[in-house]
Design brief:
The chain is built from one helix and twelve strands; from the N terminus they run βββαβββββββββ. The protein is mainly β and 165 residues long. The protein folds into two domains: 31 residues, no CATH class; 124 residues, Immunoglobulin-like (Sandwich), CATH 2.60.40.
């Protein structure tokens, strides 16, 4: 079942009853052709002062996101780090599968890059991404397991780069 609700599409999975809420812009983005690349989970710890945090009380889920360096440099690797935990206990979630979509809108065009089917045995994972443009990027992750399916969105700001001297 799909319903439109305040600029979001709300979908309830017919077998599990899990509710997905997607911004309309995300639904439009998913129609676009995406580049895919697989990545393996790496042990990842959030080691920055202000991670971005997404929570879902209904699924008892918390996802933390951070990136290093804090000011990404064009064409240099940036580590995108995620930690998925039980919201009440803080325990890391086990045996997840993750997908990550990096989106950006510039000069009237969307660009997208996807990391697919990342195996996450202990709730912590990271990937390296090279930003090719400045601006605000949206990082969307989908994590799933037997009884969990969740989408979380985060922002990365890639600042203007200093000109070479």
């Amino acid at each position: 079942m799909i319903l439109k609700h305040q600029d979001q599409l709300v979908r309830r999975h017919h077998h599990t009853g899990i509710v997905f809420q997607l911004p309309v812009s995300l639904v439009l983005l998913s129609i676009l052709t995406l580049n895919t690349q697989t990545a393996e989970a790496q042990s990842a710890n959030i080691n920055v002062n202000n991670p971005q945090i997404w929570t879902n009380a209904e699924q008892n889920l918390k996802i933390q996101f951070s990136y290093q360096p804090q000011k990404p440099i064009l064409d240099q690797p940036t580590e995108l780090t995620f930690v998925a935990q039980n919201l009440k206990t803080g325990d890391y979630l086990k045996n997840l599968t993750a997908n990550i979509l990096v989106t950006h809108y510039s000069s009237g065009q969307f660009s997208n890059f996807r990391f697919s089917n990342i195996t996450v045995p202990d709730g912590r994972f990271s990937v390296r991404y090279r930003f090719q443009d400045t601006g605000i990027f949206e990082i969307i992750t989908r994590i799933s397991a037997k009884e969990i399916a969740a989408l979380a969105a985060f922002k990365v700001i890639v600042p203007l780069q200093p000109s070479p001297a």
